[in-house]
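P.,

For your records, the input lines for the assembly:
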Amino acid sequence: MSKLKIAVQKSGRLSGKSLDLLRECGIKISNSNQKLMTVSSNFPIEILFLRDDDIPQYVEQNVADIGILGENEVWEKNRKVTTVRKLGFGNCRLSLAIPKEENYTDLTYFNHKKIATTYPNILRDFCTKKQLEVEIEEIGGSVEIAPGIGLANCIFDIVSTGSTLLMNGLKEVQTVAQSEAVLIKTPELSEEKQAILTQLLFRIQAVMYSKENKYILLNAPNNAVKQIISLLPGMKSPTVLPLAEEGWSSIHSVIKEDKFWEIIDQLQDLGAQGILIIPIEKMIT
Ligand code: PRT
Ligand code: ZN
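Structure tokens returned:
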């Protein structure tokens, strides 16, 4: 039986979380990412450890069938690969930043400026779309020091907390794109491998749903049950069970974690008590 070959980053920001995701999907992987390749003992998958820059090319050329990498690399390399789904980690933005003492008005600021970046293609597309005339200085790394050493006037780079910009006397003035880790696939996947991918995607979906959602349990006076249910839609509809104490019910449902904080006051105003929020291990919808 053939195995699905997946490329993940060998060592970098996405390596740990990529392997964690596969493990949460119940796929056993031996620890070593020192090797170029490893095979799972309980799922038909082979893992290739590569530099993230190389993953689009390897997937396009069918050396790997699928890959996990930042969407920014997919855009930059512009290879013939299909983005299958976003994976909810490695979130960052690609932004233009300038020395903090500069006066910024709008995008025309960048006209005739020299911009240092490791993402020249994404930047060129953006500038063309916005009809900006810029000089792009492609460099391999440490982009944030370019203005300080006189290599460029400003930079286009990945930002997550913003502390790197701050430390280098720069300010973010324009977000160009939001990126996160994605799963990509080769345009030509055999039927057998597509079936393995479908199985993997089903598991990824269950893992991701379970992270976003929580199980909620609460007690409520019977006269408030209807209103509380309207606040808790649940997967299909909440479960309502009578309590031993006359006039009270127990309500069970599933809720998005961020939504819970929005409605907690309303639940308490309606008389809800003993509210429990419980993590979900896996969620199949
Ligand atoms: O060796 P290899 O080529 O595989 O790795 P790499 O060095 O090219 O990539 P790596 O591991 O740094 O990043 C992999 C992916 O993580 C990127 O392609 C993004 O999709 C994603 N990602 C998420 C980030 C960041 N957050 C991030 N903060 N990639 C880089 N950074 C860097 C950024 O370049 C800047 O230097 O962190 C700095 C900014 O961070 P803040 O928090 O100070 O704003
Ligand atoms: Zn890289």
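Two observations worth noting. Helices lie at 15-24, 55-60, 71-77, 120-129, 163-167, 191-212, 225-231, 257-269. DSSP finds eight helices and 15 strands in the chain.

Regards
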